[in-house]
Amino acid sequence: MVAPESTPAPDSDRSPPDDSDSASAAAPALVADSQRFLRAVRTPDDRGPALDTVRNRIADASPDELDALAPDERIAFWLNVYNAATGAALLADPDRFEELRRLFGEPIVTVAGTELSLDQIEHGILRGSQWKYGLGYVPNPFPSAFVRRHRVADPDARVHFALNCGAASCPAVAAYDATDVDDQLDRAAGSYLRSETVVEEGTARVPRLLLWYRGDFGGRSGIRALLREHDAIDPDAVSRIRYREYDWSLALDAFRTEEEGR
């Protein structure tokens, strides 16, 4: 006998819930949590329980939720996590800055149950498994399983103008949003390059980040094109490019407003 149309089908005949759908639905919330993480570090009144709460949510996220991040969500999430984790660590113990190798290489934040270092986030996830000292030309052949699974598929060199390790020469920190991350990165690149480039007698002294990661920027010609694109140099007035020394003195709370980045 055929059941009336109003009778629900037996549970055994229903399709099971799709875990990928629930993970996709959670992806925007994960990006929002990364922004809250950064806000809790930035705002003295939010440090403490609020910081612990959002840090725990990110630690307890599932790997499937990270998988579900769209490309722009992935970049925004990891930029915020990097900057928030760095700020939280240095505000809690500024002496950690005296040992930079340990600061970059030791676990500093837990994401989806995995402890990660700043190097893993920057060079593994955001740069797509590049060797830290390879100038942007040498991939890391042995990334961790977590990095292989969650790294950015199409790395964007502009992330170098968004990451802040606490040094005075680092770019300022902003909260990145998946809906606007491309424009935000463009503003961050332009603001940093214009403020950190000095032109004297035909020589442009440019940020050392461009030297350290020149392969990411397309080599010498790519660097010149980037500087021209962001009006950091007048190509007719510059014949030589030199790289400025990096100021490694500690500078906390280097936050940039959107108005400053325009």
If you had to describe this structure to a student in words, what would you say it looks like?
The structure is a single chain. This protein has eleven helices and five strands. Strand 3 and strand 4 form a beta hairpin. The protein is globular. The chain has one domain. The strands form two sheets. A three-stranded mixed β-sheet has the order 3-4-5. Helices cover 45% and strands 8% of the residues. It is mostly helical. Helix 4 (71-92) packs antiparallel against helix 6 (118-126).
What's the topology here?
Blueprint: H1 19-42, H2 49-59, H3 63-67, H4 71-92, H5 100-105, E1 107-111, E2 114-117, H6 118-126, H7 145-150, H8 181-196, E3 198-200, E4 203-206, H9 209-212, H10 219-229, E5 240-243, H11 258-261
Parallel strand pairs: 4-5
Antiparallel strand pairs: 1-2, 3-4
List keywords for this structure.
262 residues; 11 helices; three-stranded mixed beta sheet; 8% strand; single chain; mainly alpha; two-stranded antiparallel sheet; disordered N terminus
Shape: globular
Q: What gap, in angstroms, lies between the N and C termini?
A: 70 Å
Low-confidence stretches: 1-17
Mean pLDDT: 90
How big is the Rg? 21 Å
Q: What percent of residues adopt helix (DSSP H or I)?
A: 40-55%
Number of DSSP strands? 5
Please give the domain count.
1
* Main beta-sheet annotation: 3 strands, mixed
Strand order of the largest sheet: 3-4-5
Strand content: 5-15%
Number of helices: 11
Order of helices and strands: HHHHHEEHHHEEHHEH
Helix- and strand-based class? mainly alpha
